[in-house]
Amino acid sequence: MPNFTDVTEFILLGLTSHQELQVLFFVVFLVVYMITLIGNIAMIILISISPQLQSPMYFFLSHLSFVDVWFSSNVTPKMLENLVSETKTISYVGCLVQCYFFIALVHVEVYILAVMAFDRYMAICNPLLYGSKMSRTVCVRLISVPYIYGFSVSLICTLWTYGLYFCGNVEINHFYCADPPLIKIACGRVHVKEYTMIVIAGINFTYSLSVVLVSYTLIVAAMLRMRSADGRRKAFSTCGSHLTAVTMFYGTLIFMYLRRPTEESVEQGKMVAVFYTTVIPMLNPMIYSLRNRDVKEVVKKAIVKANLKQ
């Protein structure tokens, strides 16, 4: 029988063991984190106060920004602390809490992206019924499902993580508590956790991505039937930002979670995780603002008003 031990804390090995790189990474990720907070909070405030941005598309976008703030905040502060700390530890309970919120927010985000794709389908393929079919009540119900489902699934997944046994090795080869590196250092009940992680990730990514793909297939078909080039351009402009966000988020998560945890995959996944935990939440408000005419107009008006007050 393996010699199971009671774990009270883990050691996060982080991105690098080189001191000079740790200082550089601290500065870089601190700047990225501040830009993430400012960009997403600004997006939420703009949408809440601007009459031009009261359509369902912006309602869902405000929730995407809200989730991105918490997604990044679940990981980045601890990573920054460990970059400048001698003891790079996280408590066992803290590790489980971080796992819980990470899994929950990932599920919430993938299904919000799916809901946003459905919203674009309704707006472009059923424009006459869009106002009645996508009422405020319907939008609230649609956005509630990702939150309820995401946090429920995460509770089950975290309980399986809690069921893992450890035999003395408490060094996590990552900068936050993630399932693949935890599975790699566990010595008991590993197979159940490993296969359920792959199955649950596979089912949820496949289902949510199917909603996105079906929605955009129907959108493309509708765009090809449009006689006006201006109409096609306008339809594509409202979808381009969303497609960019979907491609980045799904691509990195599939690379991370649809593979069996090995030394090589964990090391590669660590680099990929930097992208979807810090970079993507920073880029999302930029993508949606730079490629969206309504948001750019609202930002310009806000800048003009601010200058006039001075």
TrEMBL record:
One of its GO terms (molecular function) is olfactory receptor activity. PROSITE patterns: G_PROTEIN_RECEP_F1_1 (PS00237), G_PROTEIN_RECEP_F1_2 (PS50262). It is found in: Cell membrane. Putative odorant or sperm cell receptor. The chain crosses the membrane at residues 23-46, 89-118, 138-162, 198-224, 236-258, 270-290. The keyword Glycoprotein applies. The keyword Repeat does not apply. One of its GO terms (cellular component) is plasma membrane. CDD domains: 7tmA_OR5M-like. It is a multi-pass membrane protein. It comes from Muntiacus muntjak. Pfam families: 7tm_4. Gene3D superfamilies: Rhodopsin 7-helix transmembrane proteins (1.20.1070.10). Belongs to the G-protein coupled receptor 1 family. Signal peptide: none annotated. Its main location: membrane. This is Olfactory receptor. Keywords: Cell membrane, G-protein coupled receptor, Glycoprotein, Membrane, Olfaction, Receptor, Sensory transduction, Transducer, Transmembrane, Transmembrane helix. It comes from the Eukaryota. Residues 39-288 form the G-protein coupled receptors family 1 profile domain.
